[in-house]
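Lab notebook, bench 4. We co-purified these components, and the gel suggests they stay together. Before we commit to crystallization screens, I want a quick structural picture of the whole thing.
Request: model the full complex, all chains together.
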Amino acid sequence: MSASAARGQAIRSNLIKIGAVTRFLLRVLGQALPALSRPRLLIEQIYNAGARSLVIIMLCGLFVGMVLGLQGYDLLARFGSESALGVAAALGLIRELGPVLTALLFAGRAGTALASEIGLMRATDQLTAMEMMAVDPVRYVVAPRFLGGFIAMPLLTAIFDCIGIYGTQLIGVVMMRIPTGTFWSQTVNAVELRDIREGVIKSLVFGLACSLIAVYEGYYAEPTAEGVGLATTRTVVTSAVMVLMLDYVLTAAFL
Amino acid sequence: MSDRTEVSSQPPLIDVQDVHYAVGTHSVFSGLNVRVAVGKITAIMGPSGTGKTTLLRLIMGQIVPQSGRISVFGQDVGALKRRELYALRQRVGLLFQNGALLTGMSVFDNVAFPVREHARLPEPVLRKLVLMKLQAVGLRGAAELMPSELSGGMARRVALARAIVMDPEVLLYDEPFVGLDPISKGVILRLIQSLNKTLHITSVLVSHDVQEISAIADHTYLLSSGVVVADGNPAELKQDASAVVHQFMTGAPDGPVPFHYPAADYNAQLLER
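Here is the predicted assembly.
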Protein backbone atom coordinates (compact mmCIF):
# COMPACT_ATOMS: atom_id res chain seq x y z
CA MET A 1 0.00 0.00 0.00
CA SER A 2 1.37 3.41 -0.92
CA ALA A 3 1.95 6.03 1.75
CA SER A 4 -0.91 8.20 0.55
CA ALA A 5 -3.31 5.24 0.48
CA ALA A 6 -2.30 4.35 4.04
CA ARG A 7 -2.85 7.95 5.11
CA GLY A 8 -6.25 7.93 3.42
CA GLN A 9 -7.13 4.72 5.23
CA ALA A 10 -6.08 6.19 8.57
CA ILE A 11 -8.12 9.37 7.99
CA ARG A 12 -11.11 7.28 6.96
CA SER A 13 -10.96 5.06 10.05
CA ASN A 14 -10.58 8.12 12.28
CA LEU A 15 -13.61 9.75 10.68
CA ILE A 16 -15.61 6.56 11.20
CA LYS A 17 -14.58 6.56 14.88
CA ILE A 18 -15.57 10.21 15.29
CA GLY A 19 -18.91 9.45 13.64
CA ALA A 20 -19.47 6.47 15.94
CA VAL A 21 -18.65 8.51 19.06
CA THR A 22 -20.96 11.32 17.92
CA ARG A 23 -23.81 8.90 17.32
CA PHE A 24 -23.18 7.38 20.74
CA LEU A 25 -23.22 10.87 22.29
CA LEU A 26 -26.57 11.62 20.65
CA ARG A 27 -27.94 8.31 21.91
CA VAL A 28 -26.72 9.09 25.44
CA LEU A 29 -28.12 12.63 25.29
CA GLY A 30 -31.43 11.19 24.10
CA GLN A 31 -31.53 9.16 27.32
CA ALA A 32 -30.36 12.04 29.52
CA LEU A 33 -33.85 13.25 30.34
CA PRO A 34 -35.11 9.83 31.49
CA ALA A 35 -31.88 9.57 33.52
CA LEU A 36 -32.53 12.96 35.14
CA SER A 37 -35.96 11.71 36.19
CA ARG A 38 -34.22 9.11 38.37
CA PRO A 39 -32.37 11.29 40.84
CA ARG A 40 -31.24 8.37 42.99
CA LEU A 41 -29.20 6.79 40.19
CA LEU A 42 -27.77 10.16 39.19
CA ILE A 43 -26.82 11.20 42.72
CA GLU A 44 -25.07 7.86 43.17
CA GLN A 45 -22.99 8.55 40.06
CA ILE A 46 -22.19 12.15 41.05
CA TYR A 47 -21.00 10.70 44.35
CA ASN A 48 -18.90 8.07 42.56
CA ALA A 49 -17.31 10.45 40.07
CA GLY A 50 -17.21 13.53 42.29
CA ALA A 51 -17.05 12.80 46.00
CA ARG A 52 -14.73 9.83 45.54
CA SER A 53 -12.31 12.00 43.56
CA LEU A 54 -12.29 14.73 46.23
CA VAL A 55 -9.23 13.63 48.17
CA ILE A 56 -6.95 13.39 45.15
CA ILE A 57 -8.30 16.66 43.71
CA MET A 58 -7.81 18.52 47.00
CA LEU A 59 -4.36 17.10 47.60
CA CYS A 60 -3.17 17.89 44.09
CA GLY A 61 -4.80 21.33 44.21
CA LEU A 62 -2.93 22.16 47.39
CA PHE A 63 0.45 21.12 46.03
CA VAL A 64 -0.08 22.77 42.64
CA GLY A 65 -1.00 25.99 44.48
CA MET A 66 2.06 25.74 46.70
CA VAL A 67 4.37 25.14 43.73
CA LEU A 68 2.79 28.11 41.98
CA GLY A 69 3.49 30.11 45.15
CA LEU A 70 7.18 29.18 45.21
CA GLN A 71 7.81 29.56 41.48
CA GLY A 72 5.63 32.67 41.19
CA TYR A 73 7.29 34.35 44.17
CA ASP A 74 10.76 33.65 42.80
CA LEU A 75 9.80 35.02 39.37
CA LEU A 76 7.89 38.07 40.60
CA ALA A 77 10.60 38.97 43.14
CA ARG A 78 12.98 39.54 40.23
CA PHE A 79 10.74 42.41 39.14
CA GLY A 80 9.96 43.54 42.65
CA SER A 81 6.28 42.73 42.29
CA GLU A 82 5.83 39.91 44.79
CA SER A 83 2.53 41.38 45.88
CA ALA A 84 1.01 40.28 42.55
CA LEU A 85 1.57 36.64 43.51
CA GLY A 86 -2.09 36.10 44.40
CA VAL A 87 -3.24 37.54 41.07
CA ALA A 88 -0.86 35.40 39.03
CA ALA A 89 -1.79 32.22 40.86
CA ALA A 90 -5.54 32.87 40.88
CA LEU A 91 -5.71 33.72 37.18
CA GLY A 92 -3.46 30.81 36.26
CA LEU A 93 -5.53 28.40 38.31
CA ILE A 94 -8.99 29.63 37.39
CA ARG A 95 -8.39 30.03 33.67
CA GLU A 96 -5.97 27.23 32.94
CA LEU A 97 -4.49 24.94 35.53
CA GLY A 98 -7.67 24.26 37.48
CA PRO A 99 -9.79 22.94 34.59
CA VAL A 100 -6.93 21.13 32.83
CA LEU A 101 -5.36 19.42 35.83
CA THR A 102 -8.75 18.52 37.29
CA ALA A 103 -9.73 16.96 33.96
CA LEU A 104 -6.48 14.97 33.79
CA LEU A 105 -6.89 13.76 37.37
CA PHE A 106 -10.56 13.02 36.72
CA ALA A 107 -9.65 10.91 33.68
CA GLY A 108 -7.15 8.96 35.77
CA ARG A 109 -9.42 8.44 38.77
CA ALA A 110 -13.08 8.55 37.75
CA GLY A 111 -12.70 7.95 33.98
CA THR A 112 -10.82 4.68 34.41
CA ALA A 113 -13.28 3.55 37.09
CA LEU A 114 -16.21 4.25 34.75
CA ALA A 115 -14.62 2.53 31.75
CA SER A 116 -13.60 -0.57 33.68
CA GLU A 117 -16.95 -0.83 35.49
CA ILE A 118 -18.98 -0.63 32.28
CA GLY A 119 -16.46 -2.84 30.45
CA LEU A 120 -16.73 -5.50 33.15
CA MET A 121 -20.52 -5.31 33.00
CA ARG A 122 -20.18 -5.98 29.26
CA ALA A 123 -17.73 -8.85 29.83
CA THR A 124 -20.00 -10.52 32.42
CA ASP A 125 -23.10 -10.25 30.19
CA GLN A 126 -24.80 -7.79 32.55
CA LEU A 127 -25.44 -5.28 29.76
CA THR A 128 -26.75 -8.02 27.48
CA ALA A 129 -28.96 -9.29 30.31
CA MET A 130 -30.47 -5.80 30.61
CA GLU A 131 -31.14 -5.69 26.87
CA MET A 132 -32.81 -9.09 27.12
CA MET A 133 -35.00 -7.78 29.96
CA ALA A 134 -36.01 -4.95 27.61
CA VAL A 135 -34.06 -2.39 29.63
CA ASP A 136 -31.85 -0.09 27.54
CA PRO A 137 -28.39 -0.20 29.16
CA VAL A 138 -27.63 3.22 27.69
CA ARG A 139 -30.50 4.63 29.72
CA TYR A 140 -29.88 2.67 32.91
CA VAL A 141 -26.08 2.40 33.02
CA VAL A 142 -24.45 4.84 30.59
CA ALA A 143 -26.54 8.02 30.80
CA PRO A 144 -26.45 8.41 34.62
CA ARG A 145 -22.68 7.81 34.65
CA PHE A 146 -22.11 10.25 31.82
CA LEU A 147 -24.24 12.92 33.50
CA GLY A 148 -22.63 12.22 36.87
CA GLY A 149 -19.17 12.89 35.43
CA PHE A 150 -20.37 15.93 33.50
CA ILE A 151 -21.90 17.48 36.62
CA ALA A 152 -19.02 16.53 38.91
CA MET A 153 -16.26 18.06 36.77
CA PRO A 154 -17.06 21.79 37.26
CA LEU A 155 -17.63 21.19 40.98
CA LEU A 156 -14.27 19.45 41.30
CA THR A 157 -12.61 22.21 39.30
CA ALA A 158 -14.04 24.87 41.62
CA ILE A 159 -12.71 22.98 44.63
CA PHE A 160 -9.31 22.51 42.94
CA ASP A 161 -9.14 26.28 42.26
CA CYS A 162 -10.05 27.24 45.83
CA ILE A 163 -7.60 24.83 47.44
CA GLY A 164 -4.92 25.87 44.92
CA ILE A 165 -5.30 29.55 45.79
CA TYR A 166 -5.19 28.61 49.46
CA GLY A 167 -1.92 26.72 48.76
CA THR A 168 -0.41 29.78 47.11
CA GLN A 169 -1.54 31.88 50.04
CA LEU A 170 0.21 29.48 52.42
CA ILE A 171 3.50 30.07 50.60
CA GLY A 172 3.03 33.79 49.82
CA VAL A 173 1.52 35.04 53.05
CA VAL A 174 2.60 32.55 55.69
CA MET A 175 6.09 31.75 54.39
CA MET A 176 7.16 34.72 52.30
CA ARG A 177 5.39 37.33 54.46
CA ILE A 178 3.40 39.10 51.75
CA PRO A 179 0.80 41.14 53.71
CA THR A 180 -2.53 39.28 53.83
CA GLY A 181 -4.51 42.38 52.84
CA THR A 182 -2.35 43.03 49.78
CA PHE A 183 -2.50 39.41 48.67
CA TRP A 184 -6.27 39.09 48.86
CA SER A 185 -7.32 42.57 47.74
CA GLN A 186 -5.18 42.37 44.62
CA THR A 187 -6.47 38.91 43.87
CA VAL A 188 -10.12 39.88 44.32
CA ASN A 189 -9.67 43.01 42.19
CA ALA A 190 -7.90 41.26 39.35
CA VAL A 191 -10.16 38.25 38.89
CA GLU A 192 -13.07 39.17 36.67
CA LEU A 193 -16.24 37.38 35.81
CA ARG A 194 -14.93 36.52 32.34
CA ASP A 195 -11.99 34.65 33.92
CA ILE A 196 -14.39 32.57 35.96
CA ARG A 197 -16.56 32.07 32.88
CA GLU A 198 -13.56 30.80 30.91
CA GLY A 199 -12.76 28.31 33.65
CA VAL A 200 -16.35 27.12 33.96
CA ILE A 201 -16.81 26.65 30.22
CA LYS A 202 -13.52 24.77 29.96
CA SER A 203 -14.45 22.48 32.82
CA LEU A 204 -17.85 21.78 31.28
CA VAL A 205 -16.28 20.92 27.91
CA PHE A 206 -13.64 18.75 29.56
CA GLY A 207 -16.32 17.10 31.69
CA LEU A 208 -18.29 16.22 28.58
CA ALA A 209 -15.22 14.93 26.74
CA CYS A 210 -13.78 12.88 29.62
CA SER A 211 -17.12 11.35 30.64
CA LEU A 212 -18.04 10.56 27.05
CA ILE A 213 -14.68 8.91 26.32
CA ALA A 214 -14.90 6.83 29.50
CA VAL A 215 -18.44 5.52 28.94
CA TYR A 216 -17.82 4.96 25.21
CA GLU A 217 -14.64 2.96 25.77
CA GLY A 218 -16.31 0.92 28.52
CA TYR A 219 -19.48 0.26 26.53
CA TYR A 220 -17.63 -0.91 23.45
CA ALA A 221 -14.85 -2.76 25.29
CA GLU A 222 -14.00 -6.26 24.05
CA PRO A 223 -15.73 -8.59 26.54
CA THR A 224 -12.44 -10.07 27.79
CA ALA A 225 -10.02 -9.25 30.61
CA GLU A 226 -7.59 -7.87 28.06
CA GLY A 227 -10.33 -5.84 26.36
CA VAL A 228 -11.37 -4.18 29.62
CA GLY A 229 -7.73 -3.38 30.41
CA LEU A 230 -7.25 -1.86 26.97
CA ALA A 231 -10.44 0.19 27.30
CA THR A 232 -9.17 1.61 30.60
CA THR A 233 -5.81 2.53 29.09
CA ARG A 234 -7.43 4.10 26.04
CA THR A 235 -9.69 6.15 28.31
CA VAL A 236 -6.73 7.81 30.04
CA VAL A 237 -4.67 8.35 26.89
CA THR A 238 -7.53 9.65 24.73
CA SER A 239 -8.88 11.85 27.53
CA ALA A 240 -5.47 13.42 28.20
CA VAL A 241 -4.85 14.17 24.53
CA MET A 242 -8.38 15.49 23.99
CA VAL A 243 -8.25 17.72 27.08
CA LEU A 244 -4.97 19.33 26.01
CA MET A 245 -6.14 19.78 22.41
CA LEU A 246 -9.49 21.21 23.44
CA ASP A 247 -7.70 23.45 25.94
CA TYR A 248 -5.67 25.00 23.12
CA VAL A 249 -8.79 25.54 21.00
CA LEU A 250 -10.76 27.08 23.89
CA THR A 251 -7.89 29.28 25.06
CA ALA A 252 -7.42 30.57 21.52
CA ALA A 253 -11.14 31.27 21.32
CA PHE A 254 -11.23 33.17 24.62
CA LEU A 255 -8.19 35.40 24.04
CA MET B 1 -44.17 -40.15 16.59
CA SER B 2 -47.20 -38.60 18.32
CA ASP B 3 -45.03 -35.72 19.44
CA ARG B 4 -44.13 -34.76 15.87
CA THR B 5 -47.76 -34.74 14.83
CA GLU B 6 -48.52 -32.41 17.72
CA VAL B 7 -45.69 -30.07 16.75
CA SER B 8 -46.91 -29.73 13.20
CA SER B 9 -50.64 -29.42 13.99
CA GLN B 10 -50.33 -26.21 16.06
CA PRO B 11 -48.85 -22.92 14.93
CA PRO B 12 -45.39 -22.85 16.49
CA LEU B 13 -44.57 -20.19 19.08
CA ILE B 14 -41.07 -19.79 17.75
CA ASP B 15 -40.47 -20.58 14.11
CA VAL B 16 -36.97 -20.51 12.66
CA GLN B 17 -37.20 -20.84 8.88
CA ASP B 18 -34.25 -21.47 6.61
CA VAL B 19 -31.90 -19.23 8.59
CA HIS B 20 -28.44 -18.51 7.24
CA TYR B 21 -26.03 -16.78 9.57
CA ALA B 22 -22.30 -16.24 9.22
CA VAL B 23 -19.68 -14.36 11.23
CA GLY B 24 -17.23 -12.99 8.69
CA THR B 25 -16.40 -15.94 6.45
CA HIS B 26 -17.32 -18.54 9.08
CA SER B 27 -20.78 -19.95 8.43
CA VAL B 28 -22.69 -20.74 11.65
CA PHE B 29 -26.07 -21.71 10.19
CA SER B 30 -26.79 -22.74 6.63
CA GLY B 31 -30.51 -23.32 6.31
CA LEU B 32 -31.61 -23.91 9.89
CA ASN B 33 -35.22 -24.88 10.60
CA VAL B 34 -36.52 -25.15 14.18
CA ARG B 35 -40.09 -25.00 15.46
CA VAL B 36 -40.99 -24.60 19.12
CA ALA B 37 -44.44 -25.80 20.08
CA VAL B 38 -46.61 -23.98 22.63
CA GLY B 39 -46.37 -25.31 26.17
CA LYS B 40 -43.66 -27.85 25.40
CA ILE B 41 -40.05 -28.27 26.46
CA THR B 42 -37.95 -28.12 23.31
CA ALA B 43 -34.26 -28.87 23.51
CA ILE B 44 -31.57 -27.71 21.12
CA MET B 45 -28.56 -29.98 21.38
CA GLY B 46 -25.30 -30.28 19.58
CA PRO B 47 -21.55 -30.35 20.07
CA SER B 48 -19.79 -27.24 21.42
CA GLY B 49 -19.36 -24.56 18.80
CA THR B 50 -22.42 -25.47 16.72
CA GLY B 51 -23.99 -22.10 17.44
CA LYS B 52 -26.59 -23.08 20.04
CA THR B 53 -26.16 -19.85 21.99
CA THR B 54 -26.10 -17.93 18.69
CA LEU B 55 -29.53 -19.38 17.96
CA LEU B 56 -30.87 -17.94 21.25
CA ARG B 57 -29.37 -14.56 20.36
CA LEU B 58 -31.10 -14.74 16.99
CA ILE B 59 -34.43 -15.62 18.61
CA MET B 60 -34.07 -12.67 21.02
CA GLY B 61 -33.30 -10.32 18.13
CA GLN B 62 -29.87 -9.42 19.45
CA ILE B 63 -28.37 -10.38 16.11
CA VAL B 64 -30.06 -10.59 12.72
CA PRO B 65 -29.63 -13.47 10.23
CA GLN B 66 -28.27 -12.79 6.75
CA SER B 67 -31.28 -14.58 5.28
CA GLY B 68 -34.26 -16.55 6.49
CA ARG B 69 -36.97 -15.62 8.95
CA ILE B 70 -37.36 -16.01 12.70
CA SER B 71 -40.81 -15.43 14.06
CA VAL B 72 -41.73 -15.31 17.74
CA PHE B 73 -45.43 -15.00 18.64
CA GLY B 74 -45.97 -14.62 14.89
CA GLN B 75 -43.77 -11.51 14.68
CA ASP B 76 -40.74 -11.36 12.41
CA VAL B 77 -37.98 -10.62 14.93
CA GLY B 78 -35.52 -9.29 12.35
CA ALA B 79 -37.98 -6.66 11.13
CA LEU B 80 -38.92 -5.23 14.54
CA LYS B 81 -37.94 -1.72 15.67
CA ARG B 82 -36.14 -1.39 19.02
CA ARG B 83 -39.35 -0.43 20.84
CA GLU B 84 -41.28 -3.39 19.39
CA LEU B 85 -38.39 -5.72 20.10
CA TYR B 86 -38.30 -4.57 23.74
CA ALA B 87 -42.07 -5.16 23.98
CA LEU B 88 -41.55 -8.69 22.67
CA ARG B 89 -38.66 -9.34 25.06
CA GLN B 90 -40.94 -8.57 28.02
CA ARG B 91 -42.85 -11.73 27.09
CA VAL B 92 -39.71 -13.86 26.86
CA GLY B 93 -37.36 -14.80 29.71
CA LEU B 94 -33.75 -15.72 29.12
CA LEU B 95 -31.57 -17.58 31.57
CA PHE B 96 -27.91 -16.88 30.92
CA GLN B 97 -25.27 -19.56 31.23
CA ASN B 98 -23.49 -17.63 34.02
CA GLY B 99 -26.65 -16.07 35.47
CA ALA B 100 -25.54 -12.54 34.46
CA LEU B 101 -26.82 -11.07 37.73
CA LEU B 102 -26.22 -7.36 38.23
CA THR B 103 -23.32 -7.38 40.66
CA GLY B 104 -24.04 -3.98 42.17
CA MET B 105 -27.36 -5.00 43.75
CA SER B 106 -28.67 -7.63 46.15
CA VAL B 107 -30.50 -10.81 45.17
CA PHE B 108 -33.82 -9.16 46.04
CA ASP B 109 -33.09 -6.09 43.90
CA ASN B 110 -31.90 -8.27 41.03
CA VAL B 111 -35.20 -10.12 40.94
CA ALA B 112 -37.15 -6.89 41.40
CA PHE B 113 -35.17 -5.12 38.66
CA PRO B 114 -37.33 -5.97 35.59
CA VAL B 115 -40.54 -5.17 37.49
CA ARG B 116 -39.20 -1.84 38.73
CA GLU B 117 -38.21 -0.97 35.16
CA HIS B 118 -41.45 -1.98 33.47
CA ALA B 119 -44.26 -1.66 36.00
CA ARG B 120 -45.13 0.79 38.72
CA LEU B 121 -45.97 -1.56 41.55
CA PRO B 122 -46.32 -0.32 45.12
CA GLU B 123 -43.28 -1.46 47.11
CA PRO B 124 -45.22 -3.85 49.44
CA VAL B 125 -46.78 -5.62 46.42
CA LEU B 126 -43.42 -5.81 44.68
CA ARG B 127 -41.88 -7.24 47.82
CA LYS B 128 -44.48 -10.01 47.99
CA LEU B 129 -44.04 -10.79 44.30
CA VAL B 130 -40.25 -11.02 44.56
CA LEU B 131 -40.41 -13.16 47.70
CA MET B 132 -42.84 -15.52 45.96
CA LYS B 133 -40.51 -15.94 42.99
CA LEU B 134 -37.54 -16.47 45.31
CA GLN B 135 -39.56 -19.01 47.26
CA ALA B 136 -40.27 -20.84 43.99
CA VAL B 137 -36.54 -21.32 43.44
CA GLY B 138 -35.91 -22.02 47.13
CA LEU B 139 -33.85 -18.90 47.84
CA ARG B 140 -36.20 -16.66 49.82
CA GLY B 141 -33.68 -16.79 52.65
CA ALA B 142 -30.93 -15.44 50.40
CA ALA B 143 -32.83 -12.28 49.42
CA GLU B 144 -30.40 -9.91 51.11
CA LEU B 145 -27.20 -11.57 49.87
CA MET B 146 -25.07 -10.00 47.15
CA PRO B 147 -24.35 -11.97 43.92
CA SER B 148 -20.69 -12.35 44.96
CA GLU B 149 -21.85 -14.34 48.00
CA LEU B 150 -23.73 -16.95 45.94
CA SER B 151 -22.53 -20.30 44.61
CA GLY B 152 -22.84 -21.02 40.87
CA GLY B 153 -26.02 -23.04 41.32
CA MET B 154 -27.59 -20.40 43.57
CA ALA B 155 -26.75 -17.63 41.11
CA ARG B 156 -28.47 -19.55 38.35
CA ARG B 157 -31.56 -20.06 40.51
CA VAL B 158 -31.68 -16.33 41.30
CA ALA B 159 -31.36 -15.62 37.58
CA LEU B 160 -34.23 -18.05 37.02
CA ALA B 161 -36.36 -16.18 39.57
CA ARG B 162 -35.50 -12.95 37.75
CA ALA B 163 -36.39 -14.52 34.39
CA ILE B 164 -39.86 -15.55 35.62
CA VAL B 165 -40.69 -12.45 37.65
CA MET B 166 -42.45 -10.82 34.67
CA ASP B 167 -44.43 -14.04 34.06
CA PRO B 168 -43.03 -14.70 30.58
CA GLU B 169 -44.76 -16.95 28.10
CA VAL B 170 -41.48 -18.44 26.91
CA LEU B 171 -38.29 -19.18 28.81
CA LEU B 172 -35.01 -19.71 27.01
CA TYR B 173 -32.31 -21.53 28.95
CA ASP B 174 -28.71 -21.18 27.80
CA GLU B 175 -26.77 -24.24 29.01
CA PRO B 176 -28.63 -24.43 32.34
CA PHE B 177 -26.64 -27.42 33.65
CA VAL B 178 -23.09 -26.43 32.80
CA GLY B 179 -20.69 -26.45 35.74
CA LEU B 180 -23.24 -27.52 38.35
CA ASP B 181 -22.87 -30.25 40.95
CA PRO B 182 -25.36 -33.15 40.69
CA ILE B 183 -27.63 -31.74 43.41
CA SER B 184 -27.85 -28.30 41.79
CA LYS B 185 -28.39 -29.97 38.43
CA GLY B 186 -31.29 -31.93 39.89
CA VAL B 187 -32.74 -28.77 41.41
CA ILE B 188 -32.59 -26.84 38.12
CA LEU B 189 -34.01 -29.83 36.25
CA ARG B 190 -36.97 -30.03 38.63
CA LEU B 191 -37.51 -26.26 38.43
CA ILE B 192 -37.57 -26.26 34.61
CA GLN B 193 -40.07 -29.06 34.65
CA SER B 194 -42.32 -27.55 37.31
CA LEU B 195 -42.31 -24.11 35.65
CA ASN B 196 -43.33 -25.77 32.42
CA LYS B 197 -46.06 -27.87 33.98
CA THR B 198 -47.49 -25.46 36.56
CA LEU B 199 -47.11 -22.11 34.82
CA HIS B 200 -47.39 -23.56 31.30
CA ILE B 201 -44.26 -21.72 30.24
CA THR B 202 -42.99 -22.85 26.87
CA SER B 203 -39.35 -23.75 27.38
CA VAL B 204 -36.40 -23.85 25.02
CA LEU B 205 -33.27 -25.47 26.39
CA VAL B 206 -29.92 -25.14 24.77
CA SER B 207 -27.66 -27.81 26.17
CA HIS B 208 -25.34 -30.69 25.50
CA ASP B 209 -26.21 -32.69 28.59
CA VAL B 210 -27.80 -35.74 26.95
CA GLN B 211 -29.00 -37.36 30.19
CA GLU B 212 -30.71 -34.30 31.62
CA ILE B 213 -32.32 -33.36 28.33
CA SER B 214 -33.54 -36.88 27.74
CA ALA B 215 -35.27 -36.76 31.12
CA ILE B 216 -37.39 -33.68 30.43
CA ALA B 217 -37.51 -32.66 26.77
CA ASP B 218 -40.67 -33.21 24.73
CA HIS B 219 -38.87 -32.58 21.48
CA THR B 220 -35.17 -32.37 20.70
CA TYR B 221 -33.28 -30.88 17.78
CA LEU B 222 -29.73 -32.00 17.19
CA LEU B 223 -27.59 -29.44 15.40
CA SER B 224 -24.35 -30.08 13.61
CA SER B 225 -22.45 -28.05 11.02
CA GLY B 226 -25.10 -25.36 10.86
CA VAL B 227 -28.16 -27.51 10.19
CA VAL B 228 -30.55 -29.79 12.07
CA VAL B 229 -29.25 -33.33 11.60
CA ALA B 230 -32.00 -35.04 13.57
CA ASP B 231 -35.07 -34.22 15.61
CA GLY B 232 -37.66 -36.06 17.59
CA ASN B 233 -38.35 -37.10 21.17
CA PRO B 234 -35.42 -38.46 23.20
CA ALA B 235 -36.35 -42.11 22.60
CA GLU B 236 -36.44 -41.57 18.85
CA LEU B 237 -33.05 -39.86 18.90
CA LYS B 238 -31.53 -42.72 20.85
CA GLN B 239 -32.69 -45.14 18.17
CA ASP B 240 -31.51 -42.94 15.31
CA ALA B 241 -29.04 -44.90 13.24
CA SER B 242 -27.10 -42.00 11.74
CA ALA B 243 -23.46 -41.76 12.76
CA VAL B 244 -23.60 -38.13 13.97
CA VAL B 245 -26.58 -38.74 16.24
CA HIS B 246 -25.09 -41.96 17.56
CA GLN B 247 -21.77 -40.29 18.33
CA PHE B 248 -23.43 -37.43 20.19
CA MET B 249 -25.93 -39.52 22.15
CA THR B 250 -23.28 -42.04 23.26
CA GLY B 251 -20.47 -39.52 23.73
CA ALA B 252 -18.01 -41.33 21.46
CA PRO B 253 -14.75 -39.34 21.26
CA ASP B 254 -14.26 -39.85 17.54
CA GLY B 255 -16.67 -40.09 14.64
CA PRO B 256 -18.25 -37.65 12.20
CA VAL B 257 -17.26 -34.94 14.69
CA PRO B 258 -13.51 -35.67 14.66
CA PHE B 259 -11.39 -35.79 17.80
CA HIS B 260 -8.61 -33.88 16.02
CA TYR B 261 -8.90 -30.31 14.89
CA PRO B 262 -7.99 -30.19 11.16
CA ALA B 263 -4.19 -30.13 10.89
CA ALA B 264 -1.28 -30.93 8.59
CA ASP B 265 -0.01 -34.53 8.44
CA TYR B 266 1.22 -35.56 11.90
CA ASN B 267 4.33 -37.49 10.77
CA ALA B 268 5.31 -34.84 8.28
CA GLN B 269 5.02 -32.14 10.96
CA LEU B 270 7.10 -34.09 13.49
CA LEU B 271 9.83 -34.90 10.96
CA GLU B 272 10.14 -31.48 9.42
CA ARG B 273 13.32 -29.61 10.26
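The domain at 2-91+168-271 of chain B is CATH 3.40.50.300 (Rossmann fold). Worth comparing against the SEC data before the next meeting. The first strand of chain B starts at residue 14 and ends at 23.
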